[in-house]
Amino acid sequence: MRAVLCHAWGPVEGLRLGDAPPPIPADGEVVIAVKAAGINYADAIMVAGHYQTKPPLPFSPGLEAAGIVTACGDGVTRFRPGDRVMAILAHGGLAELAAAPEAETFTVPDGMSFEEAGAFPIAYISSHVALRWQARLEPGETLLVLGAAGGVGLTAVEIGKAMGARVIAAASTAEKLAVAQERGADEVVNYAAERLTDRVMALTEQLVGQEQAHREVAAQQAHQQVLTQESSHRAQLTMRFSILMKTSTRKTFHFNQAVILESWHIKQNEKK
User: Fold this and answer.
1) In the chain, where does the domain assigned CATH 3.40.50.720 lie?
2) What is 123-203's CATH number?
3) Of the four listed, 54, 98, 193, 234, which is most buried by Cβ atoms within 10 Å?
C-alpha cells in the first residue's frame, strides 16, 4: 500500500511517500481503507522523536482517520466490512490502510462526510469532553480559550458558545482572531499586541464585582473579617484564570459512540 513514511526522526519535511506492507488486524482490531485523515501538532512531535511514544522506524504518522472497514480481527463485535467509521490511532493514519482498536473506532454519523470525520475525534471530542465532563461548563459562565485559532482552540470556541458560555478567544494575530470570531467568540484578545492578563481582567471586571459582592455578603453573615486586599486580589485571579479548574472527580474518560453523536449534534447546531 502507499503511505506517508517517516524513515528518521526530524522535521515533517523529511516525510516521504512510499510503499509499506498493509496492516493485518490483530485480535480486537479493524483495518480501515482510509478516505480522510487528520493532521495534528502531535504528529509533528512524533515525527521529531519527542512524542510520548516512538514507533519503530519506518512508520506512517497520523493519529486519526476515517474510512471504510475492510477487515476485522478476532473478537470484534461492533463492526463488519463495509461500515463507515472514524478512529483514534497510535499512528498510521496517513496511509491507504490503517489498523485501529475496536474500542477507539466509532461509527460515522449520518450526514457527516469522511473529510469531517477524519479530523473529528482528537480536536472536537477532546474539547467537548474537557468542557462538559471535566470543566462542567455552565450557561452564562465565561470561557477563556488560549490558542483559539488551532484545532482544539476553535472547537473549544464552538462548543463553549453552543453550551451557552461567554467565550473570550485569545490568539497572536488579527487573522487568527477573525477566524475565532467567525466560530462564535464574543470577545477577542491579541496577546502579541496587548497584555493578556490586563485585557482579560478588563473584560471580566463586572463579573469580578458581582463575585466579590457575594463573597463580602457571605463573610458578613458568618461574622468573619472581610477579605484583605491581598487575598481579595488572589480570589479575583483565581476566579478569572481557573475557569477550567472546578472541583470535580478526575477520572480517565473513554470516548464512546454516545459522545461522538452528541459532539456531532453540537457541531450541526453550531452550523445553523
Assistant:
1) 123-203
2) 3.40.50.720
3) 98
| CATH no., domain 2-119 | 3.90.180.10
Paired sense of beta strands 84-88 and 97-101, if any: unpaired
Domain with CATH 3.90.180.10 in the chain: 2-119
d(CA 262, CA 62): 24
Write out the chain in H/E/C secondary structure. Answer: CEEEEECCCCCHHHCEEEECCCCCCCCCEEEEEEEEEECCHHHHHHHHCCCCCCCCCCECCCCEEEEEEEEECCCCCCCCCCCEEEEECCCCCCECEEEEEHHHEEECCCCCCHHHHHCCHHHHHHHHHHHHHHCCCCCCCEEEEECCCCHHHHHHHHHHHHCCCEEEEEECCHHHHHHHHHCCCCEEEECCCCCHHHHHHHHCHHHHHHHHHHHHHHHHHCCCCCCCHHHHHHHHHHHHHCCCCCCCCCCCCCCCHHHHHHHHHHHHHHHC
CB 3 within 8 A of CB 41: no
Query: pTM here?
Result: 0.72
Say how far apart CA 217 and CA 214 lie, in whole Å.
5
Question: Can you give the pLDDT of all 272 residues of the chain as single tens digits?
Answer: 999 999 999 999 999 999 999 999 999 999 999 999 999 989 999 999 999 999 999 999 999 999 999 999 999 999 999 999 999 999 999 999 999 999 999 999 988 999 999 999 888 888 888 888 888 888 988 999 999 988 889 999 999 998 999 999 999 999 999 999 999 999 999 999 999 888 888 888 755 445 444 444 444 444 333 333 333 333 333 333 333 333 333 344 445 666 666 666 666 665 55
